[in-house]
Amino acid sequence: MHFLITGTAGFIGFHLARRLLDEGHSVTGFDGMTRYYEVSLKERRHAILSTYSKFKPIIAMLESRKPLTEAFSSAPPDVVVHLAAQAGVRYSLENPDAYIGSNLVGSWNILDLCRQFRPNHLLLASTSSIYGANHTIPFKEADKADEPLTLYAATKKAMEVMAHSQSHLHKTPTTAFRFFTVYGPWGRPDMALFKFVSAILDGRPIDVYGHGQMSRDFTYIDDLVEAIVRLIPVIPQSATRTDAAIDTISMHAPFRIVNIGGGQPVALGAFIETVEEALGQKAFRNMLPMQQGDVPHTFAAPELLHSLTGYTPQTPVSEGVRRFVEWYRQAYRMNIKAAEIVE
């Protein structure tokens, strides 16, 4: 099949594109190479993807309708996977305009072009941040998610709602998946694991928010990609429920929301201990209160994902962290070229 994936220079888009290319599919990769974090890391990811003959990169912003239209028209996709977004909970407090442009205007452009070009399936990346400070544990897709605590979460919720309306009006089969704290090799430098490993190896203290009392449902990148790949052929059909008790398919549109998480939250303190063990080095901890917009806990209900695909993310955090540390040592401590890095 031919895939159009937005965000292929990003962490998740890179891994998904490489998996699909390895399976023999063709991929048009659309990415804006924004400067939210070091562009060189994004360029290294794209350099690896560009070694595949069936990969076509397009560098442009989602808000720019013309190049996005050309990406659709030059090779009409069978499947669209929209992963590109302005990420980061805390950065949304500093630069809200970036979230409006990318996550709302950019996502609208994707939705409207899918109306025109009619792919077999549109898959959208949403986030567990949508649940806000949900007191119902674990977080279920059918839980009320109308009280986001950050603009980032609000724009992702808005994207889901826009996608549902387009799915209803134009019968675009759409799956929105909510990610839970994705980590692994080639991860984002603004994420906790990357920051912890970098600081500990350099002998710098790490900032531990919420005094270490928070917990997160960590999802290893390979598990996330496996879940997405398995969801690609699970095309929603309006009001056709696989399991009436848990399925979220809309009664008015071929639209479904699915959590991608293992349902195994880990306390922040335990996570830091796992990082220390993988590095063989102790951290100096700077204990701090919760940051504005943070939530104390995330906890995915994985039953719908398992019902649809037979799969549940399962890589232990200890193993996932070990793999990240191995990659980091190669990529950042030994200055090995990107094309030579082996995970």
Describe this structure in words.
The protein is α/β, with parallel strands linked by helices and 343 residues long. The protein has a domain at 2-182 and 219-261 and 299-314: Rossmann fold (3-Layer(aba) Sandwich). The protein is built from 11 helices and 13 strands. It has helices at 11-22, 39-49, 65-74, 91-94, 96-117, 151-170, 192-202, 221-231, 268-279, 303-309, 317-333; strands at residues 2-6, 26-31, 55-59, 79-82, 121-127, 174-179, 182-183, 206-208, 215-216, 219-220, 255-260, 266-267, 285-287. The strands form 4 sheets. It has a 7-stranded parallel sheet, with helices on both faces. Helix 2 links the parallel strand 2 and strand 3. Helix 1 (11-22) packs parallel to helix 2 (39-49), helix 1 (11-22) packs across helix 8 (221-231) and helix 5 (96-117) packs parallel to helix 6 (151-170). The chain starts with a strand and ends in a 10-residue tail after the last helix. The model is unreliable at 334-343 (pLDDT under 50).
